[in-house]
Amino acid sequence: EADIYQTPRYLVIGTGKKITLECSQTMGHDKMYWYQQDPGMELHLIHYSYGVNSTEKGDLSSESTVSRIRTEHFPLTLESARPSHTSQYLCASSGYVSSGNTIYFGEGSWLTVV
Amino acid sequence: ILNVEQSPQSLHVQEGDSTNFTCSFPSSNFYALHWYRWETAKSPEALFVMTLNGDEKKKGRISATLNTKEGYSYLYIKGSQPEDSATYLCASALNSGNTPLVFGKGTRLSVIA
Fold it and tell me: How far apart are CA A76 and CA A73, in angstroms?
């Protein structure tokens, strides 16, 4: 079983609020990812990191930001939430190329902005 | 941009039926093909990682094949059970695995008892 944790699991917040979604993994993985999925749609990569102090934007433009100060921690922040940010956010990590870069996912954070 | 396509989008089968679905991906610069199972209210779980043309992997009643030359993979489920109901995602990686996986939209399978 993968050791990757996301909090909060479910959150309803008002427009304009700042929110940080937390993600931690205890597997020592260098690579971490944030995916966004709207109902019925595909997973879209919004941010990834290949190590401490390294972050990249994914293929879907997002108004969120991320940081990677510690290997195990990859938080995602929305400075001013809007209803269009309502979605499920999945954090993931992967380890070694020899394992085929298998991705281990957290259980997701459901965000609703009202 | 790497385009990963899955079909069908959704599928309903009777308990005991066998079924299969398709993942297609660009064959150039191919590195690996992943299959994941995503049950409702849970996190996606890795099923298979395949890298070699002609690869076939099996896990219980589920198996997968890979054709890297023509850019497709099949996932087979033999004797479907209600607990197989889930969304099955495939994802492709390019360039020695140094770029992030790109996921298809998934095939949503419902097995009716």
Answer: 10
Tokens of A31: 């690579």
List, in sequence order, every beta strand (DSSP E) within B1-113: 5-7, 10-14, 19-24, 30-38, 45-50, 56-59, 62-67, 72-77, 86-94, 102-103, 107-112
pLDDT in tens, B35-92: 999 998 888 999 999 999 999 999 999 999 999 999 999 999 999 999 999 999 999 9
Q: Residue B43 and residue A43: Cβ atoms within 8 Å?
A: no
Residue-wise pLDDT for A61-95, tens only, equals: 789 999 999 999 999 999 999 999 999 999 999 98
User: Do B93 and A58 count as a contact with CB atoms less than 8 A apart?
Assistant: no
Residue B45 structure tokens: 């779980």
Give the whole-angstrom CA distance, residue B5 versus residue B106: 8
Tell me the one-letter amino acid at A50: Y
| Nearest CB to A102 within list B43, B49, B96 | B49
Task: Indicate the Cα dihedral angle A50, A55, A58, A63, nearest 10°.
Answer: 150
Q: Is the CB of B13 inside 8 Å of chain A's CB atoms? A: no
Closest by Cβ to B51, choosing from A35, A100, A107: A100
How close B79 gets to chain A, by Cα (Å)? 26
Shortest CA distance from A96: residue in chain B: B97
